[in-house]
């Protein structure tokens, strides 16, 4: 089960007791809440994995993580993971969390000596922008990338909105993602990107950690990363597992390429290149029924094929939430499908089906 903010804690507590999951993924605060409510027995947990350990401390979760670790003091194994070596000060105050970290053995899976390390599977590029405002260079670069799923990293929330609006004005299909958005909106934008109904995700460094989207083929540094650690985590969104990827850095006229950027990077000039977006394969639709209405993926596929005139090959990712569902369908057939299913029923229940609102 997944336990995090933005969702009903009481409902999650009931489900914890009902499902009794073998693995729980949680944010520190919400995990402590459920321990306090006694929704599960912390003494039964044998392994504690703290992902992005350094970032958790940086974001101010130190006290919550200390309480969490103390509550799980009988776990047999603690694993700390990060794509970069955490710069942790161990002599601040004694506590169980730091004691475990101090005793940890280090396994380095990202060493460049390993042929499967991400750095060895990435093609590196530098794209100069003739002016400080890089928007047109970005549009030309995304045209050059040709519709491959790409994450564009910027430094500020306001920049996410500005870049996304510019690209949408030029008919690019993109999603926006930053910490100032409501969680439901972030999830919706992320679904569109995962499902292929947008092929560009514009984000702050919020997306640099924790997102596993194997389909991402390119990372674009619109703004320079603040340091090498941020650079590493951004680039880690592509070339995941066995996949290859490409990384592009847009360099303004007064900017210097960071020392840590690979020297083998190729320079590509796009000053005279046209701006011509590649439209995504899918469109995302909203269905007003979900798990609580006993709707399954099989029900949705059958309905869209029988009533909407689609084939299984026209249907992509399906996400079914408690009260609604999202479905990716062939973009070229989306309007005809919506007309065909207007007023129809799934399992005897009338539903609302429309293009996902953004």
How much strand content do the residues show?
Answer: 15-25%
Tell me which CATH architecture of the largest domain applies here: 3-Layer(aba) Sandwich
Number of helices: 11
* Biggest β-sheet description: 7 strands, parallel
Distance between the termini: 28 Å
Helix content: 25-40%
CATH domain class name of the largest domain: Alpha Beta
Structural class comes to alpha/beta
Query: SSE order in H/E notation?
Result: EHEHEHHEHEHEHEHEEHEEEHEEHEEE
Strand order of the largest sheet: 7-8-6-9-10-5-11
What gross morphology would you assign?
flat
Rg, Å, rounded: 23 Å
CATH superfamily of the largest domain: P-loop containing nucleotide triphosphate hydrolases
- Under CATH, the topology of the largest domain can be stated as Rossmann fold
Which spans of ≥5 residues are poorly predicted at pLDDT below 50? none
How many structural domains can be distinguished in the coordinates? Answer: 3
Give the overall average pLDDT: 91
Which descriptors would you attach to this protein?
358 residues; Rossmann fold; Alpha-Beta Plaits; four-stranded antiparallel sheet; 17 strands
Secondary-structure map:
Layout: E1 2-3, H1 9-19, E2 25-26, H2 28-37, E3 47-51, H3 53-58, H4 62-71, E4 77-81, H5 96-102, E5 122-128, H6 135-145, E6 150-153, H7 157-169, E7 174-177, H8 183-195, E8 200-203, E9 218-221, H9 228-235, E10 245-251, E11 266-267, E12 282-287, H10 297-306, E13 315-320, E14 325-330, H11 334-341, E15 345-346, E16 349-350, E17 353-355
Parallel strand pairs: 1-2, 3-4, 5-10, 5-11, 6-8, 6-9, 7-8, 9-10
Antiparallel strand pairs: 12-14, 12-17, 13-14, 15-16
Helix pairs in contact: 2-4
């Amino acid at each position: 089960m997944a336990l995090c903010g933005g969702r009903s804690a009481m409902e999650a507590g009931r489900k914890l007791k009902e499902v009794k999951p073998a693995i729980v993924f949680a944010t520190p605060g919400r995990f402590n809440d459920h321990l306090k409510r006694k929704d599960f027995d912390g003494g039964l947990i044998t392994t504690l994995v703290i992902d992005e350990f350094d970032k958790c401390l940086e974001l101010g979760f130190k006290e919550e993580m200390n309480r969490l670790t103390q509550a799980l003091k009988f776990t047999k194994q603690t694993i700390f993971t990060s794509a970069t070596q955490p710069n942790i000060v161990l002599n601040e105050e004694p506590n169980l969390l730091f004691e475990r970290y101090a005793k940890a053995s280090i396994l380095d899976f990202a060493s460049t000596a390993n042929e499967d390390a991400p750095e060895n599977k990435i093609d590196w590029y530098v794209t100069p922008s003739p002016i400080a405002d890089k928007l047109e260079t970005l549009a030309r670069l995304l045209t050059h990338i040709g519709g491959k799923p790409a994450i564009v990293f910027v430094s500020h929330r306001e920049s996410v909105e500005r870049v996304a609006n510019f690209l949408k004005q030029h008919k690019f299909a993109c999603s926006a993602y930053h910490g100032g958005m409501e969680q439901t909106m972030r999830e919706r934008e992320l679904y569109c990107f995962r499902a292929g109904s947008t092929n560009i995700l514009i984000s702050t460094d919020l997306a640099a950690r924790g997102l596993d989207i194997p389909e991402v083929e390119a990372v674009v540094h619109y703004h320079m990363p603040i340091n090498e650690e941020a650079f590493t985590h951004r680039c880690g969104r592509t070339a995941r597992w066995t996949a290859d990827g490409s990384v592009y850095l847009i360099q303004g006229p007064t900017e210097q390429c960071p020392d840590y950027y690979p020297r083998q990077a190729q320079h590509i000039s796009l000053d005279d290149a046209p701006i011509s977006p590649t439209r995504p394969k899918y469109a995302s639709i909203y269905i007003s029924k979900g798990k609580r209405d006993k709707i399954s993926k099989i029900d949705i596929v059958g309905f869209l094929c029988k009533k909407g005139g689609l084939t299984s090959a026209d249907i992509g990712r399906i996400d079914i939430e408690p009260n609604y569902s999202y479905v990716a369908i062939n973009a070229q057939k989306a309007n005809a499908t919506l007309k065909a299913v207007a007023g129809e029923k799934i399992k005897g229940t009338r539903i609302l089906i429309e293009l996902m609102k953004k």
